[in-house]
């Protein structure tokens, strides 16, 4: 299990500076928080559920939330992508990137910064989400359900060519029924991979959110047929109690 730093801004054991920009004003490269925080206790309030109080307290005491605000990121999830990119180095200037489930835009911001999208000679970043989101300077922001039949063609048109990276942080709304929730998660993974197979350029990268305990063996087998390198990673910025992992598949091979 990955160890969390003992204090905001502390270095990970064995970590090294990559010199890659974190997408923030000033070009911070570290994915670790530097904001010093005081613990905040949220009192219960009339009409507020206990779950809401606990969520609010967690947000107010989360150093990644504070750091995201300080750097101008749309969400703390930006740090997950920073960590993944610093480890696997898939975001490069001039490439084309698709961000599935992009709202509120934290991943899109990082992708724009690292591909230099919107700049002369820079890359192209296209994001889509069913929720209202954007605009993100330098990105094409589409508000539409990715499962809508029109969505794939809209994304392809905005890309203007093969994608070098397809990344998905999509998660289905939970119902409280484990079997139903699991099926919804698998369905999203399958459609994300099917789209990636259509648009990825040779050598491309596919990234998606998965969950511990999820029986995705069949899908994983299909991904491994097309990508020689497939890794599972839990970023330090992913909350300890969350079962989420990220699958990073690289070296996409076109069908012969």
UniProtKB/TrEMBL annotation:
InterPro entries, per database record: RNA_methyltr_RlmE (IPR050082), RNA_MeTrfase_FtsJ_dom (IPR002877), rRNA-MeTfrase_E (IPR015507), SAM-dependent_MTases_sf (IPR029063)
Transmembrane helix listed as a keyword: no
Biased composition range(s): Low complexity: 1-19
Ribosomal RNA methyltransferase FtsJ domain mapped to chain residues: 73-252
Location of the region described as Disordered in the Swiss-Prot/TrEMBL record: 1-44
Family per record: Belongs to the class I-like SAM-binding methyltransferase superfamily. RNA methyltransferase RlmE family.
Descriptive protein name: Ribosomal RNA large subunit methyltransferase E
Species assigned in the record: Novispirillum itersonii
Protein encoded by which gene: rlmE
